Input
Amino acid sequence: MSGSFVYSEKPIQIEGGEGPYLYDDAGNEYLDFGASYGVATVGHCHPEVVSAVQSQMEELTFVQASYPNAARDALYEKLAAVAPDGLENVWLCNSGTEANEAALKFARSATGNSKVVAAMQGFHGRTMGALSATWKSKYKQPFEPLAGDFEFVPYGDEEALAEAVDDETAAVLLEPIQGEGGVNPAPEDYLQVAREVTNQTGSALILDEIQTGLGRTGALWACEKRGVTPDLLTSAKGLGGGLPVGATLCADWIAEDAGPHGSTFSGGPVVSAAAEATLSIIAEENIPKDASEVGDHLQSKLRGSELPIRAVRGEGLLLGVEVKRGANRLLKRLAMDHGILALPAGRTVVRLLPPLVVEESHADEVVAALEAVLAEAKA
Output
C-alpha cells in the first residue's frame, strides 16, 4: 500500500523549489500560486531560512520545551512583539489544527464553559476538536461522534451570531476570511460584533489566522484591518518558512487558566530558528505592503479581463475566483498546460494563495493562463 493513501496524488513529481517556483523531476518549472497550501509565505527555500536551519542543526536538533533554549526564546520574543496588543503569551505546536485544538482547550478551561460557536463553511483542521468546529460533513462524517457542544451560525450574519452566544459559551471561533469555504471575507462590522458579544458574555473570541495571517491580506494580521483584537489568535502554515510549526497567541486571562496541555515537539530549536527567520524576513522585506500592492494589481487584472467568471473575492494575496465550470478541471489544465499551480476552494472557486514574494508580472502570467484555459473550456 502506498504511503500517500490519504491523498489524491498529482501527476507531477516535485523535486526542487526557489522563490515562487517549483521544479519537477524533469526540470520543468511551475509558478506556485498555491504556496503549497499557504506554507511558502516567503517563497521556497528562502536563503535566510535555509541558513538559520542549517546553523541550528549544527548546534542542537531538539530539546523538549521544559528546558529553555535560545532559538525557542527568540521565537517567543519575536511572536510576542508582532502579535496584536495584549496577545503576548505564546504556545508553540506543529500545525494549524493543533493551534486551534489548543485554543479551544484553553478557552474551555479559562471560561469553565464548553459551548463553541463556529461558522458555516468554516474550516479549522482535522484533529477531533478542530474538526468539530469545521463545517463540511465530508470531513467529519466518517469519524463521528466528534467532540460535542458546537453550534454553527451563518458566516457574516450578525444577528444569528449574537443570538447564539450566551453565558454558557466558551468561545466563538471564526476566520477573518474563510479560505477552504470559498474565500469569503467577513463583512465590515462582523468581527467587531463578535468582539462585542463575547465581551458581554465573558466568552473568548478565537480568530483563526492560519491562512490570513503573516501579511497575506496586506496587514500582518487580518484582524488588524478590522480593528479587532481577539482573546486567542492562531497561526501556522507559512510561519515556519516551510517547516511544520503552529502558534496560539493568548491574552493574559486565557494564559492564567489555560489548563494542562503539552506537546513533545512544542517549539523545537530547528523549527523555532526557521520561524524566527521567517518573521524577520516578513518585517525586513515589508511583505504585507507587497502583498497588498500585488494583490490589488491581480484583482484589478481579473476584474478588468473578459474572463467568464462570476466573482472575485478576497484581500491581498488570498483571492477566490468563482468560475462557471468545475474548478478542479480548470486547475489541472493550468498545471499541465501552463505550469501554474493553484488550489480549489469548493467545486467552483479557484483559490490564488501564492508566496508573498510574487511580483505583478507573475500575477499577469496567471491571468493570461486563466484566460487561455477558460477560452479552451468554452470552445
